[in-house]
Amino acid sequence: MRKFPVLLSTIVAASTITLSTTSISAESTTDLNEKIDALQQQQKQLEEKQGKLQRDTDKTDKKINKNLDKQGSVEKEIHSIDIDLQKTLEQITTKETEISNTNQQIEELGKQIQKLKKEITILKERIAKREGLLKDRLRNIQQNGGSMKYIEVILGSKSFGDFISRSSAVNTIMDQDKSIMEQHEADKITVEKNKVDVENKKSEVEERKQSLQAQKQDLVALKGQLDKQLSKKETLMASLEEEHKELEAYKVSVEEEQEILAQQAEAAEKAKQLAQSQKSELEQLAKEKAEQQAKQEKTKPKSNNHSSSANSSSSSSSNSSGGSAPAPAPAPEQNMGGDMMYPISAPITSHYGTRWGSMHHGTDFGAPIGTPVRSAASGVVIMTNSASQAGMTGYGNVILVSHNINGQSYTTLYAHLNSIGVSQGQTVSAGQVIGASGNTGQSTGPHLHFEVHRGGWNGSKSNSIDPMTVLN
């Protein structure tokens, strides 16, 4: 997934313009015209940057909406998978119940099989006894003549009644023999049938158990597939949510940059208005001076050519010898060779440079909470940010001031403040109290964190320079 850098506050353009520290008398109309032209050009550049940022915001909004649509689609898929997974779990539970019931049936059948085995044993013993009895009777029949003995018994009747009795007895004996044989055969058939039934039931239950086990395995495999699908969708969802957070953060950073550019544009407009005011004032002074000179020329007494020539020569000589007041010398401009003043009266506790494995982009001054913090140079406040506001992560209460020195713009940053005494767009002079030191934001103790940037401040702090190279 594409990662978007979360910008704390993107570039405060290097072209940030502040009020000039040079007095009106030190600048010519030409200088002011050039300054106004430069300011107008910078305003144009700011407008272009703001337009680009607006386009970035629009693109980001589209990406956010697309991301939310994807999240909605994935949520539906996850919901569908959850339903299928729940159904599968219910089916697995059902199969496990059926398998448990089948195991109980197998256990019950085991008991029945044991009972049938006992019955088979009893039947076998009964059959064995009958077989012994039948063998004895067959042996007797063979020894005594078989059916001839029955005839002799009948024929030996002494009367008709005796004949009937003997015939009935013989029939009874023969019926018993027949019954014994039939029961014997029936028991054999029962034994074989019971054996077959037991084996069939056992096989049937085993087959059912195997079938249920196979179905359960299929359901478990299906559950595994659903778990993988769900895991994949949840991973995708987490990725989309992370992307959404980054897009929102990027959008916030762009909006913050737009706000900073708007503040910068306001500062540039104020500087342009001041330059125009200075130009008008300078032009008015020049006009008044010209009118005064013209008036003086008119009031001079007329004389002959010789006198005029002499006076002219005398005047020229007088001027060349310093008779008239010389023009005022231009006020010196600030130089970045140590002309920024210390922002606070406190000892340095940490210098600019690598510290604890990372870059420290400023100088720390250890000071009790409430120590006055002063602007290092004249300029315009382009941003104030409280610890409770988004952006400028870690700085706590912070002030950014832009300066224009010898045509080069600089931005100073004052962080971890306990209080802020200026507002956005306010003009400040060198040494003016702008706040008080504190311990807000990601701070390990009361101190002032002071940064100097050549040009504008940006999230990567790529423009930072060592403050000690410019402090006087």
From TrEMBL:
Chain residue ranges for the region called Disordered: 282-342
Molecular function terms from GO: metalloendopeptidase activity
UniProt cross-references to Pfam families, sorted A to Z: CC_PcsB, Peptidase_M23
Assigned keywords, A-Z: Coiled coil, Signal
InterPro entries referenced in this protein's UniProt entry, alphabetically: Cell_wall_metabolism_enzyme (IPR050570), Dup_hybrid_motif (IPR011055), M23ase_b-sheet_dom (IPR016047), PcsB_CC (IPR057309)
Domain M23ase beta-sheet core: 359-456
Ranges of compositional bias, category Low complexity: 304-326
Biased composition (Basic and acidic residues): 282-300
Residue stretches in coiled coil: 29-59, 85-133
Extent of the signal sequence: 1-25
Limits of the Peptidoglycan hydrolase PcsB coiled-coil domain: 120-193
Protein name: Uncharacterized protein
